[in-house]
Amino acid sequence: MFERLSRGLAVIEALIVALPVTGLFLAFGPTQFLAPAYDFPGVATIAIAAIAVLAFAGICSGWVLLSTFTIGGAAMLRRRATAWRVLARAGVLLVLASAASLFLPRVDADGLSSFRFDFNIFSMAWPLLLPLAHLELELWLRSRRPAPAATGGPPAIG
Fold first, then answer.
1. Helix (H, G, I), strand (E, B) or coil at 81
2. Residue 90: pLDDT above 90?
3. For a tag site, which of 12, 48, 143, 158 has the least CB within 10 Å?
């Protein structure tokens, strides 16, 4: 009963929180982060492009985990390969580091200030922490049951 409610909440979180933030990242991420690394190669632009690729990987893994839980429940989520959770947690660390960077003193160096401006944009993904916190809570609450063998493939339907 409670798992069905939790899975329903996960669907709502996906539609209201994760989908708009993912859409914004997909719409503006390539032009904001990847194109400057190609047009004006430098340490700062290439670093931001690499961070954007890590953010994209974190968002994709979050969607994999969210869809796995929504379709298969907590048991299927526990069977999902650990690499998906590691990538999602790396995305969480990226958002938290970007949010912490907002509170650091301003630096007037040209390359560093543009890097900080671009890096701080990643803090706008903080709403994605809600569905991931929900999934982590599900994993923690249901950790008392023994988990079946890990699978790397897509969740079974039906």
1. coil
2. yes
3. 158
CA distance 93 to 87: 10
Is the Cβ–Cβ distance between 5 and 123 less than 8 Å?
no
Q: What is the pTM of this model?
A: 0.78
How many whole angstroms separate alpha carbon 60 and alpha carbon 80?
Answer: 14
Cβ neighbours for 68, distance < 8 A, ≥ 6 positions apart: 76, 77, 80, 155
Q: Is 149 helix (H, G, I), strand (E, B) or coil?
A: coil
Tell me what percent of the chain is helix, strand and coil, each rounded to the nearest 5: 80, 0, 20
Q: Which residues contact 2 (CB under 8 A, 6 or more apart)?
A: none
Q: Which residues pair with 151 in a beta bridge?
A: 80
**Cα(87)–Cα(125) distance, integer angstroms:** 15
Q: What is the CA radius of gyration of the chain?
A: 18
The DSSP H or E segment spanning 59 is helix 43-79
Query: How far is residue 79 CA from its own chain's centroid?
Result: 19
Contact by Cβ (8 Å): 37, 48: yes
- Return the pLDDT at 63: 92
